[in-house]
What does this fold into?
Amino acid sequence: MFQFLQPIWLSALAGIAVPVIIHLWNQRPGKTLKVGSVSLVTESLQRYQNRIQLSEILLLILRCLLIGFIALALTGPQWRSPVGSNAKGWLLMDRKDVASSYKHFKPTIDSLLLAGYEFHFFEEGFKKEKLEHALADTSANRVSNASYRNIVAALDQQVNAALPVYVFTNQYLRNFAGVRTNVMLNLHWQMYMPDSLVGSSATDTAALRITIFTQHYGTDAHYLVAASEALRQFSKKNIIVKLVTNMREMPDQQDWLFWLEDAMPLNSYNAANIVLYAGGHPQREASVILPADGSLFAAVGVNKLIIERDSIEQLPEVRWQDGFGHPVLTAQQQAGRTLYTLYTHINPDWNELPWSDNFPAILYTLVYPNSAAATFDKALIDPAQAMPLMQSSKENNAKPALSAVTQLSAVCWLIAFILLFAERSLSFYYSKSKTNG
It folds into this structure.
């Protein structure tokens, strides 16, 4: 099926009228030449007139085709052809984990291949390959680091919803960056826990006590509690989270105190780390929260911020900042503990932290700054959270079938260049012929 990426350029085909008008304009009556008798020149004159008329029509055709192919090239033409396949389905594995995935799911994979399923790499392009060749390939090049969620979204655009798709991957959280996508796939996703983590003592016996106090920002506190619980689940650490709304219920000692208020009596509670909201009037802005202390986490949108008038150099240590360089989270040592000031709120009206899948990971980089990279690299995701959101099967008929796309712009430009060369050569030849009589 022929398609155009920029069909508005088809209006340029109206330019074909230009050479036609020029051609008709140049068909002027010739000069009258008086001769005594035309009996000897009638036949040769007729042949000359026919030759001149044929040459002008050929030149006209070349010019019209030139304008037509230039307009066609600008539209971004492409050809979509259905990919015929007798496969009963696809099975996909990450190129860098083919051996491990096959080891954990060998009976299932062998039965699927025996049933007529095709093996494809679980990466952009979904290259078809024979499994034995993939197992023998130990090269590290051409390995994609794309998020599995982005790959599934691309798979949704290329595979028919009725085709059974089996995906075999590990459970590493680092492979599932981004938000869960809505897909229309007949998807069967099986995940395995890496052997290095099986039977290992992943539980941290040292307890990390987190206390969350608020009296005015209950919604913020519930979002933070949910993120802390998610942090405890995927990190497998002994994290104790307590929500407090009455100061008389405050624990005697805690490692982290999130004081979700605009101000607090700093000397009243024993905590090694204290996080509190900055005071001031918030301002609307469209930016993102970025790490500023060397930690790594994905950017999160922010739309309301308390802008600090001082420059970053005049502030305490900046941990997070926005895209304009304004501080979002600062830290300073005070009386043997670390005081953090947050210039935004943990609320959807202020930023996207409450809705971000990366919020637990961002929180991890804050509470475990020394071991965040190493531990998060081995963190696992729950298979239920890893699965994309499946759309209703009633919409399957509306999804296009798998097709191969061939871009034709380069071909059109090449033909246009050839036509230009031919038109200029022919025009020069006939103009020279007319000059020589």
